[in-house]
Write a structure and sequence with these properties.
The protein is α/β, with parallel strands linked by helices. The chain folds into two domains: about 120 residues, 3-Layer(aba) Sandwich (Rossmann fold); about 90 residues, OB fold (Dihydrolipoamide Acetyltransferase, E2P) (Beta Barrel). It is built from seven helices and 15 strands. The strands form four sheets. A five-stranded parallel β-sheet has the order 2-1-3-4-5, with helices on both faces. A five-stranded antiparallel β-sheet has the order 10-9-8-12-11. Strands 13-14-15 form a three-stranded antiparallel β-sheet, with no helix packed on it. The longest helix is centred in the first third of the chain and has 18 residues.
């Protein structure tokens, strides 16, 4: 899950950041958080990044949070927005933009928790994730965040753009968790790649959009590259992915 926090008050931004970190740690949610003190800097980043959840202050320096939310809605209609503000005056406008919640400063951690729980309920209808035991705790990983998975020294390794998650289990136990998702392809023994992250391939490797290379099993090269070609064809022609 990717979250953006936008507030021109650095103190308020740090309070919110601490609250979100605490919430995600308590619930073992895998999350990437980006902080912005400039609404314009956020909008530039939002042009190339799809955020799952945005916390947005209404009183900003160059554009109001309402204006920022309107532009965000045009670009990413599925993104959920929670407003944070020192005034109740914009509540009606906020909810007309289908804001998930409206937190009036100074809000408590308990109120922030209620807002995040509401997001979890909404996201559960659309997001797909797996849950793995990491150490003594369970961690949820969004399917869309997984770049590839492999196996090393009795541990499943989940590679995402922000971290690596390791879970003590066999690959045979793990693999069925990804069976319902057509974007995952066995490219070699004990390795599954999310084809949405493949940039291209050559005679021996898949080349991912982060520059990493994953080998293609020689004995199954034709089968594997054909499966990738079929996936891309279905995607271009209106197929859906989870």
């Amino acid at each position: 899950m990717t979250i953006a926090l936008i507030d021109d008050s650095r103190d308020d931004l740090e309070v919110l950041f601490d609250y979100i970190c605490r919430y995600c740690q308590e619930r073992r949610i895998h999350v990437h958080i980006e902080k912005f003190v400039s609404e314009l800097a956020f909008l530039r980043t939002a042009n190339r990044t799809a955020y799952d959840l945005v916390f947005l202050d209404i009183y900003m320096q160059q554009a109001s949070g309402i204006q920022v939310a309107q532009k965000l809605r045009e670009k990413h209609p599925k993104c959920q927005i929670i407003f944070t503000t020192a005034s109740k005056d914009y509540a009606v406008k906020a909810f007309r933009l289908q804001a998930l919640d409206y937190l009036v400063k100074p809000y408590t951690y308990e109120l922030l928790t209620e807002a995040c729980d509401r997001y979890e309920q909404v996201a559960a209808k659309f997001a797909h994730y797996i849950e793995l035991k990491e150490g003594r705790h369970y961690t949820r990983v969004l399917i869309s965040d997984i770049i590839y998975t492999d196996y090393h020294n009795h541990y499943i390794q989940i590679h995402t753009s922000t971290c690596q998650i390791r879970s003590y289990m066999s690959f045979g136990e793990f693999a069925p968790m990804l069976d319902p998702y057509p974007q995952f392809l066995w490219c070699y023994r004990n390795c599954m790649v999310n084809m949405d992250y493949i940039e291209s391939f050559d005679s021996s490797d898949f080349i991912l959009n982060n520059g990493e290379r994953l080998p293609i099993a020689k004995a199954r090269k034709q089968e594997i590259t054909q499966a990738y070609a079929n996936y891309i064809f279905d995607y271009v022609n209106g197929g859906t992915t989870l």
